[in-house]
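Raw record, unedited: DUF1684 domain-containing protein
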Amino acid sequence: MTATATEFDQQWAAFRAERAAWARQPLGWLSLTGLHWLGEQDETIEGLPGRWRADGENVHVTVESGADELRLAGETITGSTVLTPAEGAPGIEVRTGDRLIEVIRRNGLFALRVHDPAAPTLAAFVEIPVYQPNPKWIVTGHFEPFEVARVVTTGAVVAGLEHHHTATGTVTFELDGEQRRLIVFGNQAPGLHVLFADATSGVTTFGGARRLDLSRPAADGAVVLDFNRAVNLPCAFTDNATCPLAPAENRLPLAVEAGEQDPRKEHTA
């Protein structure tokens, strides 16, 4: 085995170990057990303490004396509390026992996302199915930034929701003998990425989108796209996520048989 092949295998093993650790987080995405959308009237939600409602700008929770405990920033919630989650951002975290309740806002709607370290999905997790890595899926592309970042709107796995992404440029590359172009999200500081679909989507890979992080652009705009590292979004693992769909411009007309496969489908070796 050559040194280059050895390095490729070692890097691949480390990457897959990182992904397995991500999936096994006790309060990560595989621990989700519920997604509850809130209305304007007080309601109780099975298995959760308190009464909950939303008023268009805030979430209100009321905990009666002697009820099971809710904690916010380490402090016990008593009586009524107002929570104001930001649109599209990670939720406000409320704890009850070992569980985590995320209070989220999506398209002006409010929901509770419940994480439980004893979730059946997490307990049943073994590994994320993935295509065998192949260096042929590593290509060099060219990142061309937009003069001004623009907003790209996509649908979501939850009907009626939208996602608004900051698009900062495009990446062009050759794959399967033809030039391809994808819209790029993010920026060069935290990192650039694409959301894409292809001919495997809904067949062997998750139908909505997969994510691929790009290397930091070189001075001439060169970037590396390693499709072996295309990963699932959380919605591939759970129905309790609100992930985006790939934009229409990022739907490749070929089968990218690389990266992570749909964990809820049967796969042959």
